[in-house]
Specification:
single chain; mainly beta; Immunoglobulin-like; four-stranded antiparallel β-sheet; 2 helices; about 10% helix; globular
Length: about 240
């Protein structure tokens, strides 16, 4: 009887720890991004989009840490979360040694984007980047990770070059966007994440489009032709960029 009571007591004592166990989902947890690019274009970038969700029943302070597992020399790598898009020297949102202290609290069910931007800077190649997720309170206990594979390929034909020229840049941005390779594009239409149109621009060569007055967040930019309709849609991140 005493043995049973002792076992029950130990079980009950263990319940709070089990109920408060921290869990994150990383969606998707493995990404592969490939595209052709013009080596003379310094602003070209590849982007891996992912989201992190707090799956536990308690609020937590998320800490992410970026690892350049295998990246060509010359590539610029930038991480964006719901707070900021960080300078490439910022390898974690909590890193006192470089002055980074950007808390990322997540309530139960709360989410943040965990996007990785790569600028090849004229260097073709493949790269692997990993982001580990921990909590600020227990930074050494990795809960889950996301892997990003990037393939930056040099253009080898006119059709491939045509594909790479069509883009919105800079992305992320804090004020203006521009259209690269806009032949045949008559209009840029911007939508918020619930699909509501928030801005529309008629295109012109060399023109910049102001979105600095819009709230920070993720938008969809549709490039449209009068004859063919929507040609391509890009995700555009509008946010303050940490210097």
């Amino acid at each position: 009887m005493k043995h049973c009571l002792l076992s029950l007591s130990l079980l009950l004592l263990g319940l709070p720890a089990a109920l408060t166990q921290v869990s994150f989902s990383f969606t998707p947890d493995t990404l592969e991004i490939s595209d052709y690019f013009n080596p003379s274009d310094p602003d070209y970038e590849l982007v891996g989009y992912a989201r992190v969700k707090n799956e536990s029943n308690q609020s937590v302070n998320l800490k992410w840490t970026r690892f350049l597992v295998d990246v060509p020399d010359g590539w610029e790598v930038q991480v964006c979360d719901t707070n900021l898009c960080y300078n490439q020297i910022v390898y974690s949102n909590i890193a006192p040694e470089i002055g980074a202290n950007f808390q990322l609290p997540l309530i139960p069910g709360g989410t943040t984007n965990m996007d990785v931007h790569v600028k090849p800077k004229g260097v073709a190649g493949t790269g692997e980047i990993r982001i580990d997720l921990t909590t600020e309170e227990n930074p050494n206990d990795v809960i889950t990770s996301g892997i990003y594979y990037f393939n930056a390929l040099l253009t080898s034909s006119s059709s491939e070059a045509s594909k790479t020229r069509l883009a919105i840049f800079p992305n992320p941005t804090s004020d203006y966007i521009e259209l690269r390779g806009g032949d045949g594009v008559d209009q840029v239409v911007l939508y918020n994440i619930i699909g509501r149109q928030v801005r529309s621009f008629n295109t012109a060569p060399g023109k910049r489009y102001y979105i600095g007055d819009l709230p920070n967040g993720m938008y969809l930019a549709s490039l449209a032709s009068k004859e063919k309709g929507v040609l391509k849609t890009f995700r555009v991140s509008k946010r303050s960029i940490q210097p």
